[in-house]
Amino acid sequence: MMDAYFDESGMGEDTSYFVMAGYLASADKWDVVTKRWASKLEEGRKIDYFKMSEAAGQPSGAFDGFTERQRDAKLISLADILERGAPVRVACVIPQGPYTKYARPSARREFRSPYYLAAITVLFSVIQLCRNHRRPGQVQFYFDKQQGKETISKRLVEIVRRDFAGKELAEFIAGEPRFEDDKKYPPLQMADMLAWHIHRRKCRPKERKPLVYDRLTGGGMHYTRFWKPAELRQIGLEMGIGRGRKLVDLMEAGLWKP
Description:
six-stranded mixed β-sheet, Nucleotidyltransferase, domain 5, 16% strand
C-alpha cells in the first residue's frame, strides 16, 4: 500500500503559476518520516505544525515570535528529513496566463480552475510511476482540505469517480481521494513546504533561491510535469464543446506523457 500527499500553491489568479506538489511513499516509509518530522517540530523552539506561509516573510501563526535565525534553523532541520528520507517527489506546474487564455474558456466547467488539471496530472503521474517501477499495491491519495472551498473537494472526487471508472488505471487507486487538515497530517505539511518552494522559484526566478529549495528539489526519484502553452491550447480544443474528451483519455492516448 502506498500513500501520496499533495498540496497546492498559487490558487489565486494574481500569480504567474499554479503548482501542485507532494510525495509518494509506502506506509512503512511514511511512518518513519512522520516520526522524524514530529521530532524536529519539537526540537529547539517548538511548533505544533508546519505551514510555509507562516514561516515566510514576517513569521506568524506557528512561527509567531521566531527570530530569522530560529525560523531558518527550523526550515533546514525539516527539509533535511525530506532530503535524506527521500520519498518520491511529484509535482505539476501550470502557467496561469496560457491556462486562462487557452484552456479555461473552452474546457468543461470543472476545469475552469487549474486545480483540477493539476490534481488529475499528479494522480496520473503517480500511477504511471508505480506502473513503470512495478511498485505493488494501490495508492491512497490525500489532498489538503480547502477551508471554505468544499465544492473543490467534492468536484475532484466526482471527476475521479467518473473519468477513471472502468479503466485499468482505477485498479491502482485505493478508494476516493481524501481531503484532510494539514495541521493534523504531517505529510501534507511536507507537501506544503515543497509546493511553496517550487511556486516561489517559478514566479521569482531572478531572486535568490529560497533557503531550502535545493534540499527539497535535488536528487532522489522525482517527476515534475510542466504544462506548455501549446498543450494547454490543445486541452481547450479536445475538451471543449463538441468534442468533450476526458483528460485522462488524452493522457492515456499519449498526447501528454508524464
